[in-house]
Amino acid sequence: MDKKDIYEHLASIYLDASSKKKKKSRRYPEFLKGALSLVLVVGIALVLFKGIHKNANSSETALVFVPDVAKINYHFDPARKETFTIDLNNLNMGRFKTVAFSVKKVNYANNVFLRVEFTNIFQEKSEVYVKDLPDKWQDFRIDLSRFKNISDWSDMSELAFVVEEWNTQGKKGVVYIHNVRILR
Length: 184
Hints:
The chain has 184 residues and is an alpha+beta fold. The chain has two helices and nine strands; from the N terminus they run ααβββββββββ. It is elongated and about 110 Å long.
């Protein structure tokens, strides 16, 4: 051993410093590896989600009125109809094409029809009937052009869902409405 090797050995032991340059590692620190992996996973998830979302909804634009479940509990002893009403607050619906909602009834034996009714600020009313409500959740879409008596969609005052005595088989029951929205 020569003097330089001895010096290097002692320096590495006592001072942990050597005159020989260590090769720097080209490895990324662990946190960068984790961050890169996270970005990659999130990117793949977003691409997959967009593909599923696009296929499921065919890229529709919606204005959701009631995201929660609404309940129409009808009992036609003294009443003639039961109504669930949404205040549209003079909404301009001229650019929308469809009203959509999910609905189900509780008693499968009852034959229930649901009246969907729009009213504008000029008190023009128009309704469309949904026949034979299902006992499992089903999505319904009604084209706004089917509401023939509405001439002006620029100031809408309310949307109502009505269960009428003459349009049901049983005297009492429950109808649930969910995810009420209008679509472009």
